[in-house]
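pasting for the record
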Amino acid sequence: MATIPHSGKPTSEATDRPQRAHRTVVLPEFQGFGVGARLSDAVGEWLKRRGSDFYGQTVHPRFGAYRDASPLWEPTAANHTMPELRWLPRRLTGAGGGQAVAVRRQHPRMVYAHRYVGARPGDAAAARHLHARVQFE
């Protein structure tokens, strides 16, 4: 999993710059076992303990459904949207220059967008869920 700086404003709990998941890749022979979701939870918890907010966005239905149901993630305003436009650098569109160009998607897909919140104080169920998935020493 790779993370990059997120352009949004940090929440009041954050002391460091927000991050977002850039890419989560699981080898085909290990897909479907929850490796990506656990890795995402671990990175989210690690960044939360470091003082950063962590955002994740996916179009994968099972990965998104996990975050929808997890007590460790909360939806953002972009959750369950189907954007029809995609922003591409001009160099990829042949338009030249350094600005981005909006390109209409041929097949819009549902976007799942969440922020990692972790186990909040007093939420024993979320704490058990986190401990069952991720263990930090």
